[in-house]
Amino acid sequence: MLFREEQRSIGIGTPQEMANEAKESVDRGFNILKIKTGIDLKNDVEAIRLIRKNAGDNVRLKIDANQGWNIHDTLTAGASLVAAQFPHIRMAASDCFYPFIKRLGKRDSKRRKESVKKG
């Protein structure tokens, strides 16, 4: 049997509305959810947490903030959502922040590799 990835976008709404839409999408066979965010950081983080809980751990989450977050929001969201196992944040902040974010990602990746070697 071939594994086929199916993606569905979850539009901006209340965290519970978004979580319900995500659950319905997973029940219909979608295994990748692209979550639209970028309006309100607190609601965005809560929605992503609820979506992860409703969708389960086998569903891949992509977060699309469409440049709606500033650098502080992007870093806060990233730190807040580690437990939600998200692999990808797309267009979180304005392009002018990407060199800084890229350096942080490389630094964190290096730290994770070092901690695995020590552990």
UniProtKB/TrEMBL annotation:
Record keywords: Metal-binding
InterPro entries assigned to the protein according to its UniProt record, in alphabetical order: Enolase-like_C_sf, Enolase_C-like
Pfam families found in the cross-reference section: MR_MLE_C (PF13378)
Superkingdom assignment: Bacteria
All copies of domain Enolase C-terminal, residue ranges: 17-81
Protein name stated in the entry: Enolase-like protein
Species whose genome carries this gene: Petrotoga olearia
